[in-house]
Amino acid sequence: MLRIRSLEAGYGNLKVLRRVSIHVSPGEIVTIIGANGAGKTTLLLTIAGLLRAQVGEILFDKQDIGRHAPETIALLGCALVPEGRQLFAPMTVRENLQLGAYVQIRRGRAHEVESDLGRVFDLFPRLRERASQLAGTLSGGEQQMLAIARALMARPKLIMMDEPSMGLAPLVVKDIFGIIRRLGSEGHTVLLVEQNAKAALRIANRGYVLENGRILLEENAEDLLANRDVQRAYLGRDLDSETELDGKRR
Amino acid sequence: MSLALLFQYLVAGITYGTIYAIVAIGFNIIYNATGIINFAQGEFVMLGGMIGVTLRALLPMPVAIAGAVIATMLVGALIEMLFIRWLRRPSVLRLIIITIGLSIAIRELALLLWGEGVRALPYFTGTAVTSLSVGDVHISPQVLWVLGISAVMVAALNFFFARTLLGRQMRACACNREAAQLCGISAKNMVTLSFVLSAGIGALAGCVISPITYVQYDSGSSLALKGFTVAILGGLGNSMAAVAAGLLLGTLESFSIWVMPAAYKDVIAISILLLILFVRPSGLFGNAEAARLKDY
Fold it and tell me: Chain B within 8 Å of A152 (Cβ-Cβ)?
């Protein structure tokens, strides 16, 4: 589905990504974990075409999209749920979703949009209730749901999500991860970038560790969860106190 | 002053105010798409009038006007594609200076093409001396044409932005360019479209107003100044507020003749512009927060 080889990218003269190689197979949930500033967002923005790949190639469906415009990449079926949601705030929920379906119209599948809207509303009943409300007036969790729903309206082959849990209450975070897991089980291919590494690894099949713009590690999600270095660096807890804490909670 | 005279001034004010509002909406459409002020906006109005008058010599009036609008739209598209589209991440200042340069270039080209002569389309119905009388107030039928066509334009634009897919795409680009691109919308095409649209409404305004105000190679600059004042007064980017602000400026100008010589009419617009920029730069109807949420 997606294969990236020795990608280098960044902002102007500032090179953020250094020889990054990753791949995502159809039906997989792949997560990229890493500290702030490791280059996770830069990687997704480069795949989506909002940043230019300086070196290396990005193959999407065996096609090099490294020099494509973002709207072309979206049309090819690669969707990004951007960091901070980036909704069309002064427009209604329904209008946001209809704009999400714009690539479907470009593909000549305008007739499917209405039924897709129904499907998305089934997945997010809260959005159906608020269909004619302005996107900017939704709560944080609802906004994140709308951002995911907007991306789904494009019927993407690959859906990339940048920090979907950022700034949300713990209960809402749980909902969001539940939705991502459900998308995965329905056969969607997901590339997930998260600071909440533990939750991300729990729902993912595979994970990469990105540090200072380089891929350090690639393993199955369970192996990464069990990896002591990863636990110490990204799961934010000490191993010895772990059992104790868990014991107390129970 | 008699009541009839008061109404007479009011009608004149509303007529000019409507045209200012249309020019301001032209500013707003491009501002929302690009974040820049297109200082060649007044030239679109002038071109519309000039081309309309030229075509009128050969064609019936409605066809001449349609031709003028389409030709000016093409000019708008050409300007965007030649001077703006291919720039990579241009600064706002650079874009604004480009539009100032273009406005001067268009004005000089118009001088070469049409000379210094003052022209006008004939009155759409009747002649310069025809008037409809309501009591003691006399209204030229052309005033009704200006008001009517402007109202239709505003309504059509509202419909376009609120209901059509293309209009929604433009709004999406205005409020979040990158998110719009992620939805598969070509932001560059939307910018071109904004120039086309604003050239078109400018040109139409130029045609309907020309029997009253006449048109000359340099008549765009004063209209641009008024339109810009109105756009700022209403709050940049907000077209409905521009209509209110346009009527306000038009009426103020019109009544200013009461207290000072007509030659000082332009002082009103410039004073209001300075005052609003000092005191309330987000406009009468805008607030800083709403100004960041760009919408048409």
Answer: no
